[in-house]
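Example record for the data management plan.
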Amino acid sequence: MNKILEEIGLYKIIPVIIIDEVENSIPLASALIDGGLPVAEVTFRTKAAKESIEKIAKEFPKMLLGAGTVLSVDQVKSAVDAGAKFIVSPGLNPKVVEYCLNQNIPITPGIATPTEIERALEFNLEVVKYFPAEALGGINYLKAISAPFGNLKFIPTGGIDEKNLQSYLLFPKVLACGGSWMVKSDLIANKKFNEIKNLSLSATSIVKSQNNS
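Corresponding structural encoding:
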């Protein structure tokens, strides 16, 4: 498995972030790091995404920083140029996946069905995104569709929070979970970075308690 994905698997949580104001990027990243989560997926849903990635990558070069909601090869290039170390997409776009693999860029495309999993396996992918997790049927649906597919790992995202996080992490095929409950847009907009840090600490405590059990 790619080293970046292996590192993400150690933290078990990927904060999924929507940044509207570039000025919030550094204090946000600092809050996550202080909360024990030096990991972030900055979604390409806003005009501030690329510049925010640039600033975070420059200020915190060791952070596991990725770009999400990546829909095209051009967006991959833009994100990687800005400093993104991994790419996440909501679905499986063959052009995006092929480009990333050819460039040795870690890519976790979204899947929702066994057919899409088979397409991912044709690319020899070892990790895919299970999205939108809760809307599809949660952990039970994931267990059902993943059963025939051996060692493939999943990153469930969509509707996951501290209430159901552990139920996903207990499943051995889950590498990590993506979530935005600790980085909600209103918390970022209102600059409640201390609250973001505390929510991150709470999330990491769930992971630690599971590891120790």
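Summary line stored alongside the record: The chain has eleven helices and eight strands.
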